[in-house]
Write the structure tokens for this entry.
Amino acid sequence: MRDSIWDCLDFCCGKPEECTNVCVKNPAQYVDQLREILGFDLANIPRVNGNYQPIEHEIIPLIYHQTGRDRPVSGSAFALRFHDVVDFVRGEVRFATRDLLCEAFKIDPSADIMLSGVDHDERIEPWWTLQNRRSHILRQLRDLGIQLVTAPNFSLVLDKPRTDDLHAMKRIAIVWSEFEQHGIPCALHVNSRTLKDFERWADFIQARSEIGIIAYEFITGAGKKARRQFHIDGLRKIAQSADRPLDIVVRGDPGVIVHLQNYFRKVIYIDTMAYMKTIKRQRAIRFQNSKLDWVATKTTIPSEVDEMLRHNLSEQNLFLRGRFYEQYMASA
């Protein structure tokens, strides 16, 4: 039976010379890692003017790729994955113009575009390694007219030294600041796994009036039923400490929407369901106006996929709105 954990260094791998974690047991590497973020304190993050203006959208579908479609799907707003728009290897945005971007994903060119920084580590960590090349990419993104970005959600992990979490949180704050400095509205991703994490973010946001929107994901740890309320409570404390209206962008469990609406001016939900079901050729069928069933459907030509995506996006939007948004308005 394993002994009780005394402190976070109990998670040391025992081979610090081969390890990339932020850990004091590898002093030379630790000093470099600390220097690159100017320490763990969030107070030295540069002040910015703040570019976020409240947006009208509440439910924004995430589009992964064009999936064999012929025509752009109509809509007022779409989300794309950050990694799908930025080539981390070349250090360039993948699309020279907004028209080329919209053509690649087959989306309405007149729609607002949001980039989601929530992704697997291997798809998001390379952004940090670009270092001073990030400025060039940020200028390109600004020229594409991106309406909003959610800051990359650098991971906080249970079985690593605590210093690794503090390093990830500081990096999130740094990249949020960089987006804002380049004129791109950015939702600060307040990644947390302890009460102290939420307190640190609450203090930072309270002191920074330029922060008008934050982001969170309820997919992995926060999406687990046993932990969901803990994270909702932490976000509530951030909203209440801010002493001003805040918006929030959420991915994952839509069940949190009703709870978060009690504390945030607007809850913006990025939906992945409608597009993923279309990729799997499943069509939304409304069941007694209380749920959606997804029925396997064969397609033979791209126009059928176009029609299915349009249908699925519409049905999912109506379902989410009726289940989580209008329900809240009726009870408010």
Notes: The chain has a mean pLDDT of 91. The longest strand covers residues 213-218. The two ends are 51 Å apart (CA to CA). The chain is about 40% helix and 15% strand.
